[in-house]
Structures are given as C-alpha cells and as structure tokens.
Amino acid sequence: MTFQTGHIGLNVSDLDASRDFYRKVFGFEVLGESTDADRRYAFLGLDGRLMVTLWQQSEGRFATGTPGLHHLAFQVPDIEAVRRAEDVIREIGATLHHDGVVAHREGASSGGVFFEDPDGIRLEIYAPTGAGTSPAPGGAAPTCGFF
C-alpha cells in the first residue's frame, strides 16, 4: 500500500474568520460551503483539489498541552514564496513565531515561518532550500518541535 495525505480537517470556533484567514494566507479557494446554522463548514483547496476542511464545532483555543496535533506544515517551492507568505501573515496581524523566516536547525538549508491561525492552531510554511542564511531558534533544536 502507498499513502498520500488527502486533506486536513480542522475544528474552528468561527468559520468566517478561519475561512478568510486560510484564503488570504494560503490562497485557497472555497470549493464547497454550508452556512446552515447547525452544520457550518467550508471545503478549501487549490486548483480544484481539496486541501483543508474547516468545521465550526469548537470553542476556545487550540490546546497545545494535550496529545494530538502539533502543527501543520505546508511546503512551497522556494524561500521567496515563504517570504511572500510571511508578508501576508504580518499584514493580517496573525501571531508569528521566531519573528520571521528561520532555518529548521543551525546550518540547514530548509526553513520557513511558524505562525498561528485564528484559533491558535500552529502552522508552518517552509521551503526545502534557501533558508541557510536565516537564524535557527534554539541552536540545534528542531524548529518544528519547539513553538
């Protein structure tokens, strides 16, 4: 058997805010949506391919101290795409960790930006190369695991 990630489903507290956030930061289009008060959701994707589903069925903030999801990482082709995403993240005022682009570890070529969505879900946009001159937070500690 072989596996490939199909899509990611996220519980959100405010569908409108989350839908707008993911559209602005990732450029996702709305592929389907329900505005039924008891069953609100949005299917988001790129070029007709489903990437993220948002389900308005939670309250509060993402709990980082309990077992479960640590963060979601999205790969882009190059560090310039990461920097463009960083500009959008700053523009909309989302929580940005490490003050911008960082390498995954000291001397690594891969790196990206680490930030949060409106519910505090931790996200990453990274490129496999091009971040070698960026600092690595915490020295040799893997960036993905410590934010």
Automatic annotation (TrEMBL):
<dbReference type="InterPro" id="IPR037523">
    <property type="entry name" value="VOC_core"/>
</dbReference>
<dbReference type="InterPro" id="IPR018146">
    <property type="entry name" value="Glyoxalase_1_CS"/>
</dbReference>
<dbReference type="InterPro" id="IPR051332">
    <property type="entry name" value="Fosfomycin_Res_Enzymes"/>
</dbReference>
<protein>
    <submittedName>
        <fullName>VOC family protein</fullName>
    </submittedName>
</protein>
<dbReference type="InterPro" id="IPR029068">
    <property type="entry name" value="Glyas_Bleomycin-R_OHBP_Dase"/>
</dbReference>
<dbReference type="Pfam" id="PF00903">
    <property type="entry name" value="Glyoxalase"/>
</dbReference>
<keyword id="KW-0479">Metal-binding</keyword>
<dbReference type="InterPro" id="IPR004360">
    <property type="entry name" value="Glyas_Fos-R_dOase_dom"/>
</dbReference>
<feature type="domain" description="VOC">
    <location>
        <begin position="4"/>
        <end position="128"/>
    </location>
</feature>
